[in-house]
Amino acid sequence: MDDKRQVPESVDSDELVNVAVDPRTMRDDFIEDDRSAGGELETFDTRNVSSYGESDIQVLEGMEAVRKRPGMYIGDTTLRGLHHLIYEIVANSVDEALAGRCDMIEVTVHPDNSVTVTDNGSGIPVGPHPKMGIPTVEVVHTILHAGGKFGGGAYSVSGGLHGVGASVVNALSEWMEVRVRRDCKVYRQRYERGVTKTPLETIGVCEGTGTTTTFRPDPMIFPEIAFDFDMMIARYREMAFLNREITILLRDDRQDPPVEKRLHYDGGIISFVEYLNKNKEPLHRHPIYLTYRSGDSFIEVAIQYNDGYQESVYSYANNIATSEGGTHLTGFRTALTKVINDYARKYNLLKEADRNLQGEDVREGLAAVVSVKLPDPQFEGQTKGRLGNAEIRSMMENAVNERLTAFLEENPSVARTVIDKCLSASRAREAARKAREMTRRKNALESNALPGKLADCQEKDPAFCEVFIVEGDSAGGSAKQGRERKYQAILPLWGKMLNVEKARIDKVYGNEKLLPVILALGAGIGTDFDLARLRYHKVIIMADADVDGSHIRTLLLTFFYRYMLPLVEAGHVYIACPPLYRVYEGNASHYAYDDQGVEEVKQRTGWKEPKIQRYKGLGEMNADQLWDTTMNPATRRLLRVELRDAQMADETFTLLMGDKVEPRRDFIQENAKYATHVDV
Q1: Whole-model pTM above 0.90?
Q2: Beta bridge mates, 366
Q3: I need a labelling partner for 586 at 20 to 30 A (CA). Which of 254, 272, 546, 625 fits?
Q4: Which one of 22, 96, 544, 650 is the catalytic residue?
Q5: Is 34 an active-site residue?
Q6: Where is the domain boundary, 263, 296, 322?
């Protein structure tokens, strides 16, 4: 392999999908030796010849600010930000439900990807606003930080606290129309890109009250407008669990016939925990349900242990998913550990000489939902990922200490089952510690701590390094020959590795297929995982495009998700996409990723009956072909693994890799129609 392989300086993005171009590879002189070759360093001149004066300070007001910097308000303009628009409108309806004025919310996606949200709440006020002098419904939709959740008394508990929800959705929509049913009349007003287009008008009479909002996201803001109905079901199922009084009706009119999903759960978060454990084996029949009220704040906790080894704990504040935790989650975890240790000590299940159970011991196999509702939540940022109210921690600790202790005392058989599970986890943790220390000592005695089959790269800065985890020695050999060794490392793996969904961490350290991956990445696993020690910022899974390859990818993804979650969250995991076909005539050849791609090659080249080679495995490609199709940053296709919904990801891994066969069989039968290129 020639190390001086040149990478094209530009890529036609219209012809490639998910191309990941490493900026360092755009130069052929970036290795350490070349930097000290005596040449002058090339710099990019950022100096500005114009002066810096008063006129350079721009003031963005209202809707203009939102459209200029949408990421500040909805996170980004990808699929996640697109769905956040619906969520902001639905959240307003849910706040009406929390106030006791709404019990039905309907969400419809139309064929043009516009969305209608209807509720039977009290309806947004339509009279003149006392300060602004325009209809209040217009104030809500056209002025930032205008809403009923700043202490006016309309909402004692709400999720929308910044007063920007409806106005931001309006600003980022091509058009929006709001209809209000109030005072036996129907009112209507239309907006375009945040600007009022029609005055508020009365268009009819009605019985009942409520608000209907229809909007279409602006294609000038969102590069792709295509709502994911399955993602919507997952998100609003969660909302229905958290608010057992409401019914959410989802409808997708883009399908023929239209698809409807009704979401209502009388059991609330008890049903939520049962749903989390639906593909697992619970250790006690009914979830443990704890409630606690202090002033205007209310706590709900539901927990149920299963025979698995993973923790599935989800926390919420005023219906907002606090993915980064906060004081409520910290209080819950602290109190849970204390209560279980105290009970185990009291009944001599932990002997005097034994160490206390650790937090990770008492949370193994735990499915739990922690929900708090409070009048003045302090969130970090508009995305509200973490709760900061200090008083909630002590309130949560008091609730769990008091109510869980009482439950364990009244239900000794359940208590014993839970304690036995925790003690088993403690023994496994100790075994894992010994295995980890043994691995470290072994590595310290060896001259090279890296796995023997790893062909490492020359670059030492992990930001510019990538490692291909390659299925099979044959493909690994081609990859080693075809790689750019300056920044590409190759780790061949042979055979299927451990299914970590069915194993504890001590078994992971003893697995000969997974240990090379752990050593190569260098960041540890589980609670010891440290992203700062990661040796490669692109971890690329490269497996055959067949059933066995799919299985290996799933096994590796399960391992990364369960034991290296920060690696996935940081966006460092990728899947290589090798072509399925080589279409050629004479010395000319093109590559196709599916049958449609083959037809496109024929049309583009004018070939009538070209020769077609179908690759059954990576090992069928020689080194140059593997580089050209799958490894060259300028021409390859990479899929980055993103964690959009932790709950859905947890459910999927449990379904595909867990012990229960029937749910997996049902899933396969339901989705078999979507499978392509399956070798029989």
Answers
A1: no
A2: 305
A3: 546
A4: 544
A5: no
A6: 263
